[in-house]
Amino acid sequence: MNAPSATPALPDGALRLADWGLIRAAGADARGFLHGQLTQDMQHLGAGQARLAGYCSAKGRLLASFVVWPMADDELLLACSADLLPAMLKRLSMFVLRAKCKLSDASGELALWGLAGPAARAAADGLAPWAVARMAERQVVRLPDASSGGLPVARALLVQPAADPAPAPATLEAAAWAALEARSGVVRIVAATAEQFVPQMVNLELVGGVNFQKGCYPGQEVVARSQYRGTLKRRAYLLSGNVPMSPGQEIFHSGDPAQPAGLVALAGSLGQGQHDALAELKIAATAEGSLHLGAADGPRLDLGALPYPLPAEAAA
C-alpha cells in the first residue's frame, strides 16, 4: 500500500495555535515533581533544551503528551493539547502535596504560535530539533521536521506575550499545521485519544519521549514491560487518503472487517484533496490487504513513509 504522489505546495508562515495550551510549573521542586510524573527526565533538562514527554495513567496509557522546556532554573513550561489542559492541570495539582511547585494555566498570558517552512527556519536559525532559543520575551522551540513531497518542512513553536503581534505572516492554515504534525511522526495526545495508547503504540519512545533509565512515574512498570518483554503488536504509521480524517476515528482492515485495526491520532491536510493522518495500527494490518476509514467498506487509506525507521517487529 503506497502513498499517492501528490505534492502540495510547501507550507510557510505562522499560525496562532488555538488547540494548544501552556501549563507553567514554578518553584524549587518543579523539576523534581515533574520528573516523578512524566516519562521523561526533567532533572537534567538544561537551558536551551526542550523535551517530549508523556503523562500516563497507572495502566500505562497516555493521558497527555507535553513539550517541556525551562523558562528559568525553577520554572518550566509544558505545551499540550488545549482540550486536555484543564484536566491535566487538575490531576497534576492533586499530586503536588508538599512539594514547592505551583502549577498554573499560562495560556492567557502567553501566546503559542506554530511556524512552518521558511518562517520556521528564520526564527529557529541554526537550532537543532528540540533546542530552544530565547530572544527577550520570546522563546523559540525547534521541532523535528515534517515532510511534503519528499522535501523537509521546518517546524517551530514560538512563545511570546499574548498582546504581541504575529511573529511572521499569519498565512499558515490550521489544517496544514495539523498535517505537518502528523507527517512529523510525533504524536500529540488530544481529548479524543486520551487513555487509548501505551507510549510505544504511537512511537513515543522512538522520537525521544520516554527515558527508560529515569526511574518511577505513573504507569512506568507497564511501559517498561511493553519495551522489554514480548513483541509489540501495534505501532503508529502515516496514512493518507482523499477524505478528511480526525483524531479518534477508527480504521478497519480488509482482512478483519468485524473489528477496528487502529485509531487516528492526528490528522490534517496540505490541500489538493490530500489528507494525512498519524494513526495507531495493528502491525499485522500493514503487511497486506487494504485499510479503510470508519468501516470496512469506508474510504481507502494508503500507507506513507514516516521520517524515521520503525523497529524490525513493525516492518510492513
Layout of strands and helices, then pairs:
Blueprint lengths: L12 E4 L3 E7 L3 H6 L15 E6 L5 E11 L2 E7 L3 H10 L7 E4 L4 E7 L1 H6 L8 E4 L2 E11 L2 E11 L12 H11 L35 H9 L5 E8 L8 E4 L2 E16 L2 E9 L8 E3 L6 E4 L13
Antiparallel strand pairs: 1-7, 2-5, 2-6, 3-4, 4-5, 7-10, 8-9, 9-10, 11-14, 11-16, 12-13, 12-15, 13-14, 15-16
In short:
The chain has about 325 residues and is mainly β. The protein has five helices and 16 strands. About 15% of the residues lie in helices and about 35% in strands.
Question: How does this structure look, described?
Answer:
The chain is mostly beta strands. It folds into two domains: 13-173, Gyrase A, domain 2 (2-Layer Sandwich), CATH 3.30.1360.120; 191-302, Elongation Factor Tu (Ef-tu), domain 3, CATH 2.40.30.160. It has helices at residues 30-35, 85-94, 118-123, 174-184, 220-228; strands at 13-16, 20-26, 51-56, 62-72, 75-81, 102-105, 110-116, 132-135, 138-148, 151-161, 234-241, 250-253, 256-271, 274-282, 291-293, 300-303. A six-stranded antiparallel beta barrel has the order 11-14-13-12-15-16. The longest helix is centred in the middle third of the chain and has 11 residues, at 174-184. The mean pLDDT is 94.
